[in-house]
Specification:
Layout: E1 3-5, E2 18-21, H1 22-32, H2 34-55, E3 60-78, E4 84-104, E5 109-124, E6 128-144, H3 149-215, H4 221-256, E7 264-267, H5 279-289, H6 291-312, E8 316-329, E9 340-350, H7 358-424, H8 430-465, E10 467-468, E11 473-474
Parallel strand pairs: 2-7
Antiparallel strand pairs: 1-7, 3-4, 4-5, 5-6, 6-8, 8-9, 10-11
Length: 477
Amino acid sequence: MLFIIAGMAAPTLAQPAVSLTLDEAIARGQVQGPDARIARYDRDIAEWDYRATRAELLPALSLNGNAPGYLRSLTSLDLDDGSLRYIQQQRTFSSMSLALSQPIPLTGGSIRVSSGLSRITQTGGFGSNQWQAAPLLVSLDQPLFQYNALKWQRRLEPLRLEVAERAFTEDMATIAWEVANRYFDVFEAQQDIEIAVFNVAVNDTIFVLSQGRFDIGRIAENDLLQSELQLINARTARDNAEINHQRAVQELRIALRMEPGQTIELIPPMQLPEITTTPEEAVDQARQRQPAALQAELDELEAERLLEQARRNVFAIDVSASYGLNQSTTDLSRVYTDPLDRQQFNLGFQVPIFQWGQSRARIQSALAARRRAEEASDLQREELDQAVYFETLQLQLLRRQVEVAAQADTIATRRFEVARNRYLVGNIDITDLFNAQNEKDAANRSYIQTLRRFWSSYFTVQRLTMIDLSLKTPLSF
């Protein structure tokens, strides 16, 4: 079966028709559709965020400085006789330093190696020119017994990236489901048009025939009015079907990002694939590949991180130490001559004595959040397993129902042809004919809708299991 659809507006130049199977329409939607573009941007954002966070753990080289700097102000000066005098000073200054820093993920600290040079020129009452150099300075900052954000970053970021990659695959599978539904919107609308056009032609013939029979007194006026009403209803159904068809075509074009006015030839997927995946296999595949399953694990790990942060941040102990060389002189050529040692060590601490139970409350809140995350994850896994299991069962049932609906459609069509022929020779009344016609239309629509439900379920199972059901291989894009 092949159906041709056209756009709402005629193209300026004739464009070649595009034949589309369901698979080809899905492939177009996954490559050039707007939803596919958004999904790729989301994946790119996650990948670049991951690279940025990974780069934060690597050595960083930076050049810092200011040149020039200028300050003009009144400054107080204590004189030898004990009096105070304000003098005006002008100062220019500049500095530059090169630093190499490295975070220490294992301990949460950081180490830094730097070298710098600065100059201060002062004018006014006490003019001077001073150079200061630090050829080498090595410093270490290390928190003790505290929350290590770097350690958790190394654990969480790869999981976040994996969730994003799985989510992208799920987005592509969702696009397949959405395109399939829009494809069948057009297919059903086209079928409704064909049914309506056929009914208009048949009912017009029956109405003309009924008028002739009424004129010679072979049928009652009620039968004539019934045939006229059936004709009016058929024309109304045809007009509504044409509007619905145009809307469905436009929505399909948007999903596939196709040119307005381009003619499309639909090739409906009447041949159904064999479904060999069992519900148990589908559940197992979903557990392995669903982003929701990995997101549940990530949520639990995030709750564990918050709990450790609440426990570790009760008190703070920080150690900072540095060793290096420095020198100061008024002569730039001697600023690196005979540098002096520079050492610094500091142990800082902050221990809460009384906080009205704040630390305990934060820990209990984090504990409750972790328990909630565990419960939510277990529930999410159970709901996912149930959805996959019963959707796979539904898919297997729908495949059998499509075959039954096709047989019913064939039987109803044949019955209508028999009823029409019998009416034409006067063997049945008009009510029996219209009943057969309505049953034919209902059987045809039921077949198309069952076919649609099968393919919708097919792509739903693919989205849930993240595998190609026909090839039984993981989805990849």
